[in-house]
């Protein structure tokens, strides 16, 4: 029997039958979780679609935010290859919302209390811990309707907990693969690092079928770093050319903790990414990085917020976009310094490399400072590719496509060099290079 569709009913794009069936499948999970799902579903129904009067959706294409006709896929029988080409601690691979591959957590880490599990399993075995951190600091940058839909329908979620003082050298890998036309996925990743813990998480979002399959992906991440913890998060999405994608990241950084979050955007017809970083304790540091290869007629919409709540905190944002063909990018970022956040040191930069006269880049950086002893700056640049550099490469027998790849790689290197892991650096470089293959 096919899954119920997200078809038009009382309101466009909604089907209460679909939600009821999803909830019934998870009847054995904690009552608080089921109630949270019901509340989220009601919130999704109540919230309006984004409108042109909403500043959080300025310059965005709103006419194609259509959820009609999508299904929740149940068939995960297709063999899915792992996107991770580097050594790892453990891996979870989801296909069409179902867990299809899982590697065993090393015994020494399990003995120290490390938890790396699908979200449903974590809810059964560690429900109080999940409840403590799930959506504790939600991002509020315009996609609340789609975050509510994620909570209501999430199934392919992952939970990582690293206790105090535990350092894990190799990355934890999570992969979400979506295969088929008119199918939807709602991944949710929750990462909690205890005091002085250290870990790296790499998450892949991949379409497994043809490049033209229409798909919907609405994902959410909750990243928590306790006092003195060090978290590196890398998210790489390569959805199909017809995917409508929403990804919302919430980052909470406590005293003397450091979080580096790097997001790589390669796919999707219309892809919106929101990231909110909160600096909650003195000495906290957040590094917010993103790289985008925008080609064809795709739209990449990026909204960010750096909120400094405690004194002596630092943050650095660097988003770089390479635009080809008739692609469009939107960056809207804001640094907020609260009254008690004296001696804040915050930076925000958006840089766009224009490889086409028809491409379109919008940039809206901003500051909102409520303290008087701070150092903050923001800015954006959009520039065409250097014709002399391009000519230099082509004059030495390098074809135009390869020349552009080399120039984009050089443009992106400033961001990739912030990764300490050279193997991970190489893996991301290879993913970017794949966008320029003929």
Please characterize this protein's 3D structure.
It is globular, with a radius of gyration of 21 Å. A ten-stranded mixed β-sheet has the order 4-3-7-10-12-14-16-18-20-22, with helices on one face. With 438 residues, the protein is an alpha/beta fold. The N terminus is likely disordered. Helix content is 21%, strand content 39%. It folds into two domains: 310 residues, no CATH class; 53 residues, no CATH class. The longest helix is centred in the last third of the chain and has 17 residues. It is built from nine helices and 22 strands. Strand 3 and strand 4 form a beta hairpin. 46% of the residues are buried.
Question: Overall 3D geometry?
Answer: globular
Distance between the termini: 40 Å
As laid out across the biggest beta sheet, the strand order is: 4-3-7-10-12-14-16-18-20-22
Percent of residues in beta strands: 35-45%
What is the makeup of the main sheet?
10 strands, mixed
The number of helices is: 9
Tell me roughly what share of residues is in helical segments.
10-25%
> What is the residue-averaged pLDDT?
92
By secondary-structure content and strand pairing, the structural class works out as alpha/beta
Poorly predicted regions are 1-14
Count of β-strands: 22
| Count of domains | 2
Radius of gyration: 21 Å
Write a concise keyword list for the protein shown above.
438 residues, alpha/beta, 10-stranded mixed sheet, globular, disordered N terminus
């Amino acid at each position: 029997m096919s899954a119920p569709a997200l078809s038009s009913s009382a309101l466009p794009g909604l089907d209460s039958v679909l939600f009821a069936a999803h909830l019934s499948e998870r009847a054995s999970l904690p009552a608080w979780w089921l109630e949270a799902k019901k509340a989220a579903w009601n919130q999704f129904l109540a919230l309006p679609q984004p409108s042109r009067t909403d500043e959080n959706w300025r310059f965005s294409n709103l006419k194609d935010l259509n959820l009609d006709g999508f299904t929740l896929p149940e068939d995960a029988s297709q063999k899915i290859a792992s996107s991770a080409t580097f050594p790892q601690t453990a891996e979870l691979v989801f296909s069409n919302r179902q867990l299809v591959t899982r590697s065993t957590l090393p015994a020494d880490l399990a003995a120290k209390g490390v938890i790396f599990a699908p979200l449903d399993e974590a809810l059964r075995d560690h429900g109080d811990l999940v409840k403590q951190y799930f959506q504790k600091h939600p991002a509020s940058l315009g996609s609340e309707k789609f975050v509510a839909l994620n909570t209501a329908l999430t199934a392919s979620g992952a939970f990582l907990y690293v206790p105090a003082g535990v350092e894990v050298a190799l990355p934890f890998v999570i992969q979400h693969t979506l295969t088929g036309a008119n199918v939807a996925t709602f991944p949710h990743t929750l990462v909690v690092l205890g005091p002085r813990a250290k870990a790296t998480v790499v998450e892949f979002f991949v379409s497994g079928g043809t490049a033209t399959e229409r798909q919907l992906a609405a994902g959410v991440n909750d990243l928590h770093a306790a006092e003195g913890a060090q978290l590196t998060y890398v998210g790489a999405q390569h959805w199909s050319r017809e995917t409508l994608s929403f990804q919302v990241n919430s980052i909470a950084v406590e005293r003397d903790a450091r979080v580096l979050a790097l997001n790589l955007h390669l796919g999707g017809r219309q892809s919106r990414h929101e990231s909110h970083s909160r600096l909650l304790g003195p000495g906290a540091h957040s590094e917010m990085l993103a790289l985008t290869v925008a080609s064809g007629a795709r739209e990449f919409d990026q909204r960010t917020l750096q909120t400094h709540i405690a004194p002596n905190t630092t943050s650095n944002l660097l988003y770089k976009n390479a635009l080809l063909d008739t692609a469009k990018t939107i960056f809207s970022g804001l640094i907020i310094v609260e009254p008690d956040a004296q001696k804040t040191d915050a930076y925000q930069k958006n840089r766009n490399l224009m490889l086409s006269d028809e491409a379109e880049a919008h940039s809206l950086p901003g500051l909102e400072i409520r303290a008087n002893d701070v150092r903050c700056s923001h800015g954006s640049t959009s520039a065409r590719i250097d014709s002399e550099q391009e000519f230099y490469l082509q004059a030495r027998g390098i074809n135009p496509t390869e020349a552009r790849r080399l120039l984009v790689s050089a443009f992106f290197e400033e961001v990739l060099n912030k990764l300490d892991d050279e193997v991970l650096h190489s893996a991301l470089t290879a993913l970017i290079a794949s966008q320029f293959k003929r």
